[in-house]
Amino acid sequence: MTLLRVVAGEAGPTLHTQRCYLRAPTMADFPAWATLRATSRSFLEPWEPRWPDDDLTRTAFKRRIKRYQREIREDSGYPFFLFRSSDEQLLGGATLSNVRRGVSLSCSLGYWMGEAYSGNGLMGEAVPRLLQFAFRDLRLHRVEAASIPHNERSIRLLEKAGFVREGFARRYLLINGKWQDHVLFAALVEDQVIRPPLMVDPASS
């Protein structure tokens, strides 16, 4: 039984922020996801691995959901979609991936935002809430993230959330068909102790 099931039940947790909430993706999200990704494609492609030819099809999304469910069962990854609370509009997504237990107790954070909703501070609300989940519920010690050096918006988001710049990795990830340098960041559970408390989900209060 994974920690996620222990703390939140079989369906996974819903994480609330001031204006948004995060939950695990389901097949019912396909139409909104495909539309948002299609309309944001030129905005997202410079920062992501190259999209497969069938990436926006229902069949590919079904494979994605099966992979997400397997990762949750195995305690190796925790995917989330981000929704606006006022109208349940899908805004983007984030994943805590490559969860390592044992002496590491760490994972990697990745995220994306639809073009129409970028720059409004919504992912800036989501990332601290994901850190709270990683440290409090998954009992991890370290969350890592990486950004292409000229992605200034992403770097500002990470630093505002409490991530500390730790290094530089040459040709670290294959992004949009090209090996790209990345700036490396991490947040530790000790770092969060001195930060303001985050919103607590209504169900846990």
Task: Break the fold down into its secondary structure elements and pairings.
Layout: H1 3-8, E1 15-16, E2 20-23, H2 30-39, H3 41-44, H4 58-73, E3 78-84, E4 90-100, E5 106-113, H5 122-137, E6 142-147, H6 152-160, E7 164-175, E8 178-188, H7 189-193
Parallel strand pairs: 5-6
Antiparallel strand pairs: 1-2, 2-3, 3-4, 4-5, 6-8, 7-8
Rg result: 16 Å
What is the end-to-end distance? 24 Å
Low-pLDDT stretches: 4-10, 196-205
Reported by name, the CATH topology is Aminopeptidase
Percent of residues in β-strands:
25-35%
What's the CATH architecture name?
3-Layer(aba) Sandwich
Distinct helical segment count: 7
GO cellular component, one term: cytoplasm
InterPro entries: Acyl_CoA_acyltransferase, GNAT_dom, N-acetyltransferase
EC number: 2.3.1.-
Keywords: Acyltransferase, Transferase
Describe the structure.
- The chain has 205 residues and is of the alpha+beta class.
- It has one domain: Aminopeptidase.
- The protein is 32% helix and 30% strand.
- The longest helix is centred in the N-terminal third of the chain and has 16 residues, at 58-73.
- The radius of gyration is 16 Å and the shape is globular.
